[in-house]
Amino acid sequence: MKVLAILPAFLDIENIKKSIDQIMPGLEIATNTEFEKNDADVVVITTFTPFGKKEMDKFPELKYIQVASTGYNNVDLKEVRRRKILLCNVPVANKDAVAEHVIGMSLALLKNFIPFDQQIKSGNWPLLTNSRELQGKTFGIIGMGAIGIKLVQKLIPFNVGIVYYDPRRLKPEDEEFYGLTYLPLDELVKVSDIISIHTPLSKETRSMFNESRFNLMKENSIFINSSRGEIVDEKALVKAIKEKNIYAAIDVFSVEPPDFSSELFHLDNVIFSPHIAGVTMESQERFITETIGNVIRYSQGIDPLYKVEDEL
């Protein structure tokens, strides 16, 4: 079995290679797909590498694609299905990192951390505050996969009410165990003080949050997106921030880096991060471990974990 890992050049390729060689000697690493052919039958990629028909044509022996990430919308699923290629991702490695990031963003907006910091650094001493507490708020989670469940677990000590929506409703015993209330999507949007998105990008979720859905949100509520930028209509978000005083925390954008001339970046009540909600030192180690572990399973004739089957 020949394995090729295609990793972005900004990573520490040399150290990654040293770490992997101890477990899987002989693994090849490339930083792009600018070659004519490769006889690898297993390819490991990240979300930074588009992987469609053109790329797959370069691998005549390809049988298995391992995405070292939760997301896999950079892979052409139709081509994977047509070629009967096994596709796996790693949906669990960054769940703690994303959940903590979402809670951090929630607290930053509720407690006005950034405006206070800016005012004090400018020599001002604000005497009044409109800070709010997380305790007692209704926290709406859209998407109850591994990250959604981890977010629930971390929110429980904050004494919030948690409502959720997912096309696949949890078992009643799981809802009871975590103290969750299932709501249809629009109802969740209406009642939530904070909304956090944790769904993959699909035909159903693209532009899920458009003008009509933002109009359902409470005034002064908080909207957090650490999933995929295309799930949100940016113009509709800007309008909601301006007209309903909605607060927003955005980690992902439809184009990255985004267009910084967008009005979104000139509004108050918004904080940003550069698509790093799931990126921590610890989560990157877990991604490598889970990815290599899956490839080893495959090499030993054992079914790898986290097969992407529902969309294939």
TrEMBL record:
PROSITE patterns: D_2_HYDROXYACID_DH_2, D_2_HYDROXYACID_DH_3. SUPFAM superfamilies: Formate/glycerate dehydrogenase catalytic domain-like, NAD(P)-binding Rossmann-fold domains. InterPro entries: D-isomer_2-hydroxyacid_DH, D-isomer_2_OHA_DH_cat_dom, D-isomer_DH_CS, D-isomer_DH_NAD-bd, NAD(P)-bd_dom_sf. Residues 37-308 form the D-isomer specific 2-hydroxyacid dehydrogenase catalytic domain. Belongs to the D-isomer specific 2-hydroxyacid dehydrogenase family. Keywords: NAD, Oxidoreductase. The keyword NAD applies. GO terms for cellular component: cytosol. Residues 103-277 form the D-isomer specific 2-hydroxyacid dehydrogenase NAD-binding domain. It comes from Ferroplasma acidarmanus Fer1. PANTHER family: 2-HYDROXYACID DEHYDROGENASE-RELATED, GLYOXYLATE_HYDROXYPYRUVATE REDUCTASE B. This is Hydroxyacid dehydrogenase.
